[in-house]
Amino acid sequence: MLYPQFQISLEEFDPDIYQLIRLEAERQRRRIILIPSESAAPLAVREALGSTFQNLYAEGYPHEYTRWMDESEILDYKTRLAFYRRYSIPRYYKGVEYADIAEVLARRRCAEAFAANGFTADDIYVNVQALSGSPANNAVFHALLDPGDTVLSMDLRHGGHLSHGSPANRSGKYFNIVHYTVDPQTEQINYESIKALALEHKPKMIIGGYSSYPWAVDWKEFRSIADLVGAYLLADIAHVAGLVVAGVYPSPIGYAHVTTSTTHKSLYGPRGAIIMTTDPDLSLKLDQAVFPGEQGGPHVNVFAALCLTFKFAQTKEFHAIQHQIVKNCVALAKRLETRGFRIAYGGTDTHLMNLDCKSVIGPDGTTLSGDQAARILELVGIVVNRNTLPGDETAFEASGIRMGTPWITQLGFKEKETTQLADIIADTLQATIPCCWQGMEQEELRGKVDFDVLEESKLRVIDLCEQVGIDSEPSLSGYPHFYTIHDHSSSNGEWPAFDIGGERVRPFLNYALTSDIEVLHPGESQATRLITPRGVVEGTLSYESSTTYRLSVPAEKASLTAAWLRALSDGYVRIDADIRRKCIGPVWVQESNTAPAPKVEGDPIGRSKPFYIGIENGSGDALPNFTWEEPDAIEPKRTALNETHREMGAKMVTFAGWDMPAWYTSVHD
Length: 669
Known about the structure:
The chain has 669 residues and is an alpha+beta fold. Helix content is 35%, strand content 16%.
């Protein structure tokens, strides 16, 4: 019998991690996720990942002849287990008879799913052991190249991938990388330019495959260039593998010497990878490059999940989803273009698109950065990622955001809903004013969004989710996880309270509220006022501790109070005409479990405060006139070393009432 600890459920064993997983599940349900490389794996896939197959090691490979078995032969347990018991299998571990069947079945179903261009499943050699896309690509480098060999691949800033030779990746450190880019006029791949680079540099391998380039490629043309210089052609279809299976994107099978892909993204599978070739000699090299060249034991639970992935990939439903992915992405790009945004690369015919955030320009000429656009969209519930566009110097100064439609399509979005989503994105970003100011080390780019648009966009996202049925369940978690301006106070009273806390809460409230916070002492309360874009809120502020205050407000203003204070803490909302103005923060704002403070009478305005949000010009009491009176001459004080400094020739000056040395004749003194 197992020790009791090994039979305890997750919820019982670690309630905190159980809660964390539930929160992430709710986040995925509450947000519209447009990361092109993300998708929601089906329940069956996740069940396989959590199966007892995850307990095993299985270093090595199945017998080679099993590649040509059909599914009925693979699952013929009588025959397979009889063979196993008599001859075993060429793995370094035993106890893997069922793991072997899982891997053989995953390889076969993968080959069946990708059979194309006149090549059948029997012609395709598949490796399913690489742990993810980058290790799969590293294994290809290991199998086909020697350190220092030349590789021709797309520049990362133009849509390539880290593992294709980025200087930050080991592929860029151990090999001579030559990058091709998109044509500056068409923003698309120019095959004549690639051919010229190939003839000039004579690469040993050419890579076609991209992480943000949005157009389908011509594999036949790529192969002709590779053959021209005697190079291998590697097709990395990690992003578009699902589209390839469904025939929506050209298949590289038979054109590329080697094809790699991840198995999540548009395939909707587990986090894993595949390597495919139609060349049996290359297959042996690739297998050896994965194990033992790149890694040890594979993840057997992923084999089981891949069996399900490639079974689903061969269904009509899967193919229909892939076609809809492209329709949705084209609709997203077209709508954003009609709303005045420039679509990088000229558009899309795949699952992803890139929006040029420089389309939004501030009054000082500052353009919206991809990072700020992504941050603000996340606040309203739309998840994207910043991305470099051709012309950007570094990923830290990316001018674009990358968006894809695999996730929303599997949840039921069609062109109608995608167009509505594009309008929310456009309204939010066009209500944002970019600005910049000098930071401690460099200029800082920021974007300030209109409060009303911010809150309205949050509600529109929720409505859109409910429209397609992905947010129909009641919210499990409120603040600080998921909240809107429509959240109602749980208190039935007419005077609810909010606890506001954090290390910077005092300067935050001194900025956000009209009263003079500095005169409050622990246990005291004062009348105060919160001036928001939707009106004034009268309240009572209580000093609970150096890091916690309590603000009591009328019930009808509670939701507005919480939304405005939280937006100020986030730092992206526009406060007034000075778009650079922001509150010190962050702080947390949570409905209090303690009884609110009674209303306090008195002036809610700190008349001597130089500033608070909503202050009017000329308001407050003027400070008294300042007059400087020169003090009477006082003999400066001297330290015990004063005479020593003088004897050593120090230059003495009076500073802060002391006779002090300023410098000596040289640094040697």
